[in-house]
Amino acid sequence: MAENQMDEYELQNKKIRERMDKIGRKIMVMSGKGGVGKTTVTVNLANALVDMGCTVGVLDVDIHGPNVAKMFGCENAELGSPDGVTMIPIEPRKGLKVMSLSFALDDPAAPIIWRGSLKMSAIRQFIGDTEWGELDYLLIDTPPGTGDEQLTAVQAIPEMTGAIIVTTPQDVAVLDSRRSVGFARKCGLAIIGVIENMSGLKCPDCGKEIPIFGKGGGKKMCDEMHVPFLGAVPMEIDLCRAEDEGKSWVSDPGAHPSAEALRKIAEAINYGTACSTSRDTSFLGTSFCSPTSCASCTSNCPSRKK
Ligand SMILES: Nc1ncnc2c1ncn2[C@@H]1O[C@H](COP(=O)(O)OP(=O)(O)O)[C@@H](O)[C@H]1O
Ligand SMILES: [Mg+2]
């Protein structure tokens, strides 16, 4: 890298660090396989955390399939920039800020054909040039796999709190998710836990449960790989509709088992990791912050700020 390019890179790193310092927890949502519900989990956890009073940013680094804006119902919003460099994220509701490449596209159906280097610089720009302000959480939605997007995010945000891995119970999805666990371990990224999505479908007519992708595969993998299991989210037909319409499914007070499961997971994350250091999630799942954890905590979490 030429010297002036190096300077620019370091300058951007500094900018990224300054922005990330204002954010409590930074969580990357990953999976080995596509279509297992990463974006669904990201969007629902974000809405559930906002419902709990947290301020949340969502960064969509799925360059080839940016669906976050659509699921928040803000896909037609236009990005603003006061100085031509800083990007102001879209706020679909109070307490929630969203940044996605989809806001910058003239034609949302046009394919993005980018090489790795271009994707890497776009992601670094999203992290460094977005005016996130003070946030409790930044959730990062990623494409499937362990490629440029995940690696760029992990390297650009050295204080990443950890990863949430989403899988379906099906063997092929679980196998791919093992790779996500391996990726997190290799990168020194804490694994907050695994979510088993599409865990059975309750028949809307007879109420009987149909295990479309099987059941229990995610939990079994967690036991075998010694990683925390965050919960199982069943399939629900109305969830798809809510997402297509950009409605907050998890905020809907109706008796939806998937919304209930997602709310519970958000609570476990919010209270369980509330005092976690960036690497220690060992007390995840406890219902409240434990004083001993608080005493040794070095994170920039909202509980400590109070
Ligand atoms: N628990 C669920 N019940 C019903 N539909 C779901 C559920 N989770 C995800 N979906 C649907 O499955 C599709 C893929 O989910 P998505 O979140 O886009 O996956 P990914 O981001 O992993 O590619 C979407 O149409 C979404 O609405
Ligand atoms: Mg997605």
How is this structure best described in words?
Residues 274-295 and 299-306 have low confidence and may be disordered. Strand 7 (191-202) and strand 8 (209-210) form a beta hairpin. The termini are far apart. The protein has 11 helices and 9 strands. It has a single domain (26-249), classed as Rossmann fold (3-Layer(aba) Sandwich). The chain is α/β, with parallel strands linked by helices and 306 residues long. Helix 2 (38-51) crosses helix 9. Strands 1, 2, 3, 4, 5, 6, 7, 8 and 9 form a 9-stranded mixed β-sheet that branches. Magnesium ion is lined by residues 38-39, 62, 65, 67.
Poorly predicted runs of 5 or more residues: 274-295, 299-306
Mean pLDDT: 85
**In the CATH scheme, what's the topology name?**
Rossmann fold
**Attached small molecules:** adenosine-5'-diphosphate, magnesium ion
The CATH homologous superfamily is named P-loop containing nucleotide triphosphate hydrolases
Give the class from helix and strand content and strand pairing. Answer: alpha/beta
What's the structural domain tally? 1
Strand content: 15-25%
Count of strand segments: 9
Number of helices: 11
